[in-house]
Amino acid sequence: MGKAVKALLAFTITVMAAVVFLQYAERTDLLSFLSAPEYPTSLSFGEHGSGEVATDEFYRYYYEQLGETEQEAYRAIFNELPNHPERVGIPLLTSEQMDRVYNALGNDNPHLLCLAGGGVLETRSSGKCFFMLDYELGADACN
């Protein structure tokens, strides 16, 4: 057998194997990892201040990098987002801590497209702290 015939035979076998593999993969959902993930529209962290972690399948790297008080603020804001509030009560934070919380929210949850580039941290003399949210889209477009 000549080299050209061997090469053609090897090519034909490779193509046939690829076709068989793709047919098998289609039937068994073997290539599901290639599709884009479906991001959650809500996140169950439990009650505000409970310290419970998210119950969906997404690991939140940036959330895990936050301190305990920052994590509490993250949970409070995330749990309120479906309600599209103007402000959310959070633990007392510095503006640097709030920046870390807001960046963690955006980095862990890229599907939160309705949030604009930031918000305003409001601290009252009573010791209460609020984060005033800045939305890019209206409530009906965000949900």
Q: What is the fold's blueprint, element by element?
A:
Elements: H1 3-28, H2 61-65, H3 68-80, E1 87-90, H4 95-108, E2 115-123, E3 129-135, H5 139-142
Antiparallel strand pairs: 1-3, 2-3
Helix pairs in contact: 3-4
Salient structural properties:
143 residues; alpha+beta; three-stranded antiparallel beta sheet; single chain
Description of the molecule:
By secondary structure, this protein is α+β, with helices and mostly antiparallel strands. Helix content is 43%, strand content 14%. It has a three-stranded antiparallel beta sheet, covered by helices on one side. The protein is elongated. Residues 45-53 have low confidence and may be disordered.
Task: Provide a quick synopsis of the model.
This protein is α+β, with helices and mostly antiparallel strands. Helix content is 43%, strand content 14%. The protein is built from five helices and three strands; from the N terminus they run αααβαββα.
Element-level helix/strand string: HHHEHEEH
Estimated structural class:
alpha+beta
Strand order of the largest sheet: 1-3-2
Beta percentage is: 5-15%
How many β-strand stretches?
3
Largest sheet, in brief, is: 3 strands, antiparallel
- Portion of residues within helices: 40-55%
How confident is the prediction overall: mean pLDDT?
74
Radius of gyration: 24 Å
